[in-house]
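User: Sequence in, structure out. Go.
Assistant: Echoing your sequence, followed by the structure tokens.
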Amino acid sequence: MGLTRPDIVRAGLRLLNDVGLNGLTLRLIAQELGVKAPALYWHMKNKQELLDEMATQMYADAMPGRTPEGMGERESLEQAANALRRMMLAYRDGAKVFSGTYLTDDTLLGDNVFQGRVDAGLEPYLAGRALFTVYSYVVGFVIEEQAVYPFPGERDPRYDVVPTVWVFDEDVEGRFSDGLSMVLHGVFAWLDGKDST
């Protein structure tokens, strides 16, 4: 059986935890798969294409598809935000891999939690801005979280001398939850204002 794109992506994800984003190369993946580097270029043009596929696979493996019946907008967004964070934390540099990539399978995006509002007249681009705001908070938070804790449970000692008001204290979960609540409060207040105009 020949080498496939999924083989390359899975090898990249396995190696990511060992070497991090900066150490991940197509050459290293080729060694992992027991092939020469040029063999990968039949399937991936460059590292960015690899990262796009890796991010898509990460998302496919971790994110819920459809919103459960009867779940409200806020609860649905909280669930998706927490799932997105867990997905990125499952990999070393997971947030850096995921941010700025292009998902190659748009069927993974699932429901628009604001579809009811859109059906009632909210401009779709406003729903998109609200969703992107929540997404940006989660990605940004996890990038910072993984800088302070590059490996699960291991804090980079450089951050021990910085006041905890600016960086992550021991209650990372609480900090994420509080920040998400602030963002969601703002998102829903903003949307409610747009609905009433």
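User: And one key feature?
Assistant: Residues 28 and 37 are 8 Å apart (CA to CA).
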